[in-house]
């Protein structure tokens, strides 16, 4: 079982071949805002980032700060990741065994650096630390079906499409859009790593 305290207690930062991943600090807000307010990013985000003040208030809550990691390339913030522990559905008699065994993951990346495999590299590390260091048994990710780069990334990571909902998600444009949900089990991740 893992929670936000367990995420904070990990040894940070994490390094991949090209990236550094670490918990967000208020000093990162301006760079994050500059990325999220770009139309190709902002159109898919859960909250609009038009104004800096409300964006900071949104990100600065302890719960949101605890779930947010930034991605750096050569010391510059190029995006952020979400790691949100959650309890899956369970029957009442076994609910205590289901606490904190699953997490939702999410990401956004500056369009200026897209097309270089950086999102895949960052999210692959997020998946690794979720399973290997935090001990989650399952990860989930969700997106609008029209957000093809996002669901293609999920599939590159070996995530399985588990749901395609019809006009279930209301976009801020006023349009009801299809949604996609993906999942990945720790056992599936380990098997894929063993196969190399």
TrEMBL record:
GO terms of molecular function: acyltransferase activity, transferring groups other than amino-acyl groups
| Name of protein | N-acetyltransferase
Is the keyword Nucleotide-binding in the record? no
Could you name the domain of life of the organism this protein comes from? Bacteria
What the record says about family reads: Belongs to the acetyltransferase family. RimJ subfamily.
- Which of UniProt's keywords are assigned here? Acyltransferase, Transferase
Record PROSITE patterns: GNAT
- Lineage start: Bacteria, Bacillati, Actinomycetota, Actinomycetes, Propionibacteriales
Domain named N-acetyltransferase is located at 19-187
Which species?
Nocardioides pocheonensis
Q: Does the keyword Transferase apply?
A: yes
């Amino acid at each position: 079982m893992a929670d936000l305290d367990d995420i904070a207690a990990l040894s940070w930062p994490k390094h991949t071949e090209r990236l550094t991943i670490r918990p967000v600090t208020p000093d990162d807000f301006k760079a994050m805002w500059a990325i999220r307010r770009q139309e190709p990013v902002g159109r898919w985000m859960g909250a609009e980032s038009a104004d800096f003040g409300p964006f900071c208030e949104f990100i600065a809550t302890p719960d949101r700060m605890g779930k947010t990691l930034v991605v750096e390339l050569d010391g510059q913030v190029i995006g952020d990741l979400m790691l949100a522990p959650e309890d899956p559905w369970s029957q009442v008699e076994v609910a205590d065994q289901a606490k904190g065994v699953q997490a939702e993951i999410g990401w956004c990346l500056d369009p200026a650096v897209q097309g270089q495999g950086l999102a895949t590299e960052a999210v692959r590390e997020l998946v690794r630390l979720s399973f290997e260091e935090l001990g989650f048994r399952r990860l989930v990710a969700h997106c609008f079906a029209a957000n093809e780069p996002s669901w293609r990334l999920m599939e590159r990571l070996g995530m399985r499409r588990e749901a395609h909902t019809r006009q279930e998600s209301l976009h801020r444009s006023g349009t009801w859009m299809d949604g996609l949900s993906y999942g990945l089990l720790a056992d599936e991740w380990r098997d894929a790593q063993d196969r190399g």
